């Protein structure tokens, strides 16, 4: 399956709170001697380059992580392949029918070994159930579930997995002279902790929420308090920083709600994602996002936020 074969329809109308996911399976042997049972997962179609047959790699002894299987050539690239079942602690039997989903996001190309691809679904973020409501997971890479009736599709945040392989940034963080209040929305506990640390070190007061729906309810609460007290919204929050892909409400819909509100529209909004590409950037522009950055550049958020707050926005 090539990128051209799965491109149709991924550029959904902005602000509709929708996305398309590629559903795939990882078979699991739960009891010795019994047939493997499929577990179903999903990732954003926009992150998928293509699907290829298993390269039948033997993991090197010096692997940086047990899930690392080695590297393979693809076009003009040499890309790492990770065994997703190892990361998720699933006992997946290896077969000749296994496949590798080749993804491109966070400025990197990576292959993920799985049992097979099922189909593509268009879903609304409002249909994505936070995992804490259904399951107790051993990884925060599972950010939501989609109820298909007789089974659940577990939505994966592959960026959380790749952060374990990325070197820590040693770039100095710009420190604000004023302690600004910043509302942050992200469904990944790993990314939330990273952003909170960066903002705190830069002298911000981070207000952390778990998704766009919670963020919107929080900011509307600040708006109502400000209006009741005859104060400006900036007495409560100075800027909003949000991931794009989140259960219940995505970052595009959150931004649109903020920018359509006459009392909130002055607030600058920074959106970030692993898929900020030229093709997708127009979505953030159309809902009024003031800046859009890629997740590998999260360490730049404090400086961008200071410049937006102090320099004003259009």
Structure explained in plain terms:
This protein has 314 residues and is of the alpha/beta class. It has two domains: 3-162, Beta Barrel (OB fold (Dihydrolipoamide Acetyltransferase, E2P)); 181-311, 3-Layer(aba) Sandwich (Rossmann fold), CATH 3.40.50. Helix content is 24%, strand content 31%. It is built from eight helices and 15 strands. The strands form three sheets. The protein has a five-stranded mixed β-sheet, with no helix packed on it. A hairpin with a 2-residue loop joins strand 6 and strand 7. The protein is elongated, with a radius of gyration of 20 Å.
Helix/strand layout:
Blueprint: H1 3-6, E1 18-28, E2 37-44, E3 48-53, E4 68-74, E5 77-83, H2 84-87, E6 99-105, E7 108-114, E8 116-124, E9 142-147, E10 152-156, H3 158-162, E11 181-185, H4 189-201, E12 205-209, H5 212-229, E13 239-243, H6 251-259, E14 269-273, H7 278-287, E15 291-294, H8 301-311
Parallel strand pairs: 2-10, 5-7, 11-12, 11-13, 13-14, 14-15
Antiparallel strand pairs: 1-2, 1-8, 3-6, 4-5, 6-7, 9-10
Helix pairs in contact: 5-6
| Rg for CA atoms | 20 Å
CATH architecture identity of the largest domain: Beta Barrel
The amount of beta strand, in percent, is 25-35%
* Helix and strand sequence: HEEEEEHEEEEEHEHEHEHEHEH
Strand ordering within the main sheet: 8-1-2-10-9
DSSP summary: helix tally? 8
Count of β-strands:
15
Largest sheet descriptor: 5 strands, mixed
CATH superfamily of the largest domain: CheA-289, Domain 4
Instruction: Tell me the count of domains.
Output: 2
**Overall pLDDT score:** 85
Reported by name, the CATH topology of the largest domain is OB fold (Dihydrolipoamide Acetyltransferase, E2P)
Unreliable sequence segments:
1-13
Structural class: alpha/beta
The percent range for helix content is: 10-25%
Overall shape = elongated
> Gap between N and C termini, in Å?
43 Å
Keywords: Phosphoprotein
Organism: Pseudodesulfovibrio nedwellii
Protein name: Chemotaxis protein CheV
Modified residues (4-aspartylphosphate): 243
